[in-house]
Write the structure tokens for this entry.
Amino acid sequence: MSYPHFHHTGRLSWLRAAVLGANDGIVSTASILVGVAASHAGHDAILLAGTAGLFAGAIAMAAGEYVSVQSQADSEEADLAIERASIESDASREHAELAEIYVARGLEAQLAAEVARQLMQHNALEAHARDELGISETMRARPILAALASSSSFALGAFMPLFTAAFCPQMLLIPALFATSLVVLAALGALAARAGGANELRGALRVSLWGLIAMLVTAGVGVVYRLS
């Protein structure tokens, strides 16, 4: 009888990319809008800058995430190819290597040898990938999934400050962007922490702090531009 358990690591393949994308979408777009608004640009110019930032950021996130995760996937495939060739050329040596790993983890030598034999008989490459290389199906790199999650979550995150800018009076735009962005960032940080099994308050504060710093910096840039 099996007893299924829920583990947070099953979410890591997409959670990191989705959280990173949404966080960047909010922070970068809100910061662009705050910076342009602080320069006393017109409302149309503010919205244009934010919209351009949304599309550019979403495409950049997809490309960057895909290239990064694909590089990891390529490395995994190269290691698996080496391991596959080693198993085919010298299975006994690979069996001994796997048994040594289990001995180091606490099994007696005879039991470790038997476990290694049975696992290699079942699926030798899978056993070596998991226990020698640390590559499992749950943790495998998935570049397309990561790119889609990152890009779509960036666009969703960027939509929030753009929506605020579209319907908020310009005289209240900067404080409104600060307030709404920090609230949503805090909620996002808490949600991500909860999904990953971490402390929610710490996650909320961490994300909000960096968002606040980014918006303060771009607001300063806008003020300097206006005064120059």
Summary: Residues 10-84+143-223 form one domain.
